[in-house]
Inverse folding.
């Protein structure tokens, strides 16, 4: 069974950098995409980006200037950095595994989520 | 920018059949498959339907999905009280660099 767990500060000051780590257990990271998805309280999901086990990345067009993702397969972790945060970045942040088969692509495993609040 | 549009709310009584729609804004997103996620209150989303109509292991066959053109639908038959949750559709836009994922705004299902 694959398990994902987010970790990182729950409070970040405006203009600073949000940093989160997702730790993966139960499967290899090598042949999958690993995603970050966020959800402001009471609102819909927003895809932030993804990183392949080899390190290649794709980011949301609306966030790409502020986002960096990295992966450390030896530690079975991948990370998110979001710079210059504002109150609009306050949200639950989820990490997830993106899988694919002959039918299509989908996010089959999710972390429990972590709330990050941007406030001074 | 591509958008997926869902109704903000839906409701039904136990035993009823309800459907939730997800409409793609353009053909660049509608040509791909759709996924559906169930989010119980205070929980993380859970994969419910993938590739338009495929159910992961463990998902009851009361849940079904379909696609027509650039839109998709989720149907829940024999509604249970525990089906009360938020439902999100998702697809990706391969007209944009990196094929970013797009999620609908979510539909809150109330079981009356």
């Amino acid at each position: 069974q694959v398990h994902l767990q987010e970790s990182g500060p729950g409070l970040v000051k405006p203009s600073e950098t949000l940093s989160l780590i997702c730790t993966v257990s139960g499967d290899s990271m090598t042949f999958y995409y690993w995603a970050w998805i966020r959800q402001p309280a009471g609102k819909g999901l927003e895809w932030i980006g993804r990183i392949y086990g080899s390190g290649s990345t794709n980011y949301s067009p609306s966030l790409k200037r502020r986002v960096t993702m990295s992966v450390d397969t030896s530690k079975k972790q991948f990370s998110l950095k979001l710079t210059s945060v504002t109150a609009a970045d306050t949200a639950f942040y989820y990490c997830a595994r993106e899988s694919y088969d002959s039918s299509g692509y989908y996010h089959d495993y999710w972390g429990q989520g972590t709330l990050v609040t941007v406030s001074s | 920018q591509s958008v997926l549009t869902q109704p903000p709310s839906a409701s039904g009584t136990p035993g009823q059949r309800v459907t939730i729609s997800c409409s793609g804004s353009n053909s660049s997103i509608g040509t791909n498959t759709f996924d559906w996620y169930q989010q119980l209150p205070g929980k993380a989303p859970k994969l419910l339907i993938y590739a338009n109509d495929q159910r992961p292991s463990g998902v009851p066959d009361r849940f079904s999905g379909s696609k027509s053109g650039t839109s998709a639908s989720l149907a829940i038959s024999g509604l249970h009280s525990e089906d009360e949750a938020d439902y999100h559709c998702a697809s990706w836009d391969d007209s944009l660099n990196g094929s970013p994922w797009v999620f609908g705004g979510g539909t809150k299902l109330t079981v009356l």
The interface with chain A takes residues 1, 32-33, 35, 37, 43-47, 50-52, 54, 56, 88, 90, 92, 96-106 of chain B (CB under 8 Å).
